[in-house]
Design a protein that fits this description.
Elements lengths: L2 E3 L4 H8 L4 E3 H4 L7 E6 L5 H12 L6 E6 L11 H7 E2 L1 H4 L4 E6 L15 H14 E7 L1 H11 L4 E15 L13 E11 L2 H5 L4 E7 L3 E7 L4 E4 L9 H11 L25 H17 L27
Parallel strand pairs: 1-2, 1-4, 3-4, 3-6, 4-5, 6-7, 7-12
Antiparallel strand pairs: 8-9, 8-10, 10-11, 11-12
Length: 321
Amino acid sequence: MPIKIADSLPAKDILENENIFVMTEYRAMHQDIRPLKLLILNLMPTKIITETQLLRKLSNTPLQIEVEFLQTISHEAKNVNTEHLASFYTAFDKIKHKHYDGMIITGAPVENLDFSDVDYWPELCDIMAWTSHNVHSTLHICWGAQAGLYYHYGINKVQLPKKLSGVFSHNVLKPQSPFFRGFDDTFSVPHSRYTGVLEEDILKVHGLELMSVSGEAGVFALKSEDNRRFFITGHPEYDADTLALEYARDVKKGLEIEVPKNYFPNDDPTRPPMVTWRAHAQLLYTNWLNYYVYQTTPYNIDTIGDEAFGAGEFNNYGSGI
């Protein structure tokens, strides 16, 4: 089934041209089923690109999903048209009384700053605290994962010797987990970051489950034991050319940057990159939506925060859709 989005969202035409089924608000009004309600806090400066990347991954499921986009009002976005924000984004004060089946908190290019130096950090803390009672399951991506681990569990990020950029092989530590259902024993994911989290710091925290690591990129995926919070340190949603565009941008800035690893054929940036992560990326988002949102969220969305579904517990929500 399709993903429900605003009729005039720029991603709509892009996705339809890729033969991806999306549902406009007008068409969805004539259906008598409850869609999943999903909130995306988009912290990336390239708002439309990130919207499209995430919607592409969320759309290929047998579920109808109603998506809202959230922005931080304590930060002035400089790389997106204000009309776009006014048309498609809401503020926390306007939705904090609501409940959501799922939420995604994206990365942000602020990892070299201390958390407290990020201008919207207090607002982000308020939002992350709110998710504990108003969101059934939250997926944190890259810097969003680092921020969530620091806020919820006191795990601080560490500075890497140099930027980690490229496509890296990962091992599945929990092959029985529905999160990795359909995965191969190893899979590829793009990474692009200057900071990370240490495996030993995660293993010290009761209530966290480490699910996937990479020999080169380190920790990739972990979650809370109650399945309410997921953290991934890479960018499985990246397009084929995202790392190439980031590399060209950094070179133009005169930064001392290495060619993204395992990305260009023979590490030659003059050649088109080879995509090796798309299928597993699709599975990751589909599995999270299906097994940890759709299968366990209460049918009465207003009771989110009152339920206590643990690892491996499922209700009959699916029978109501």
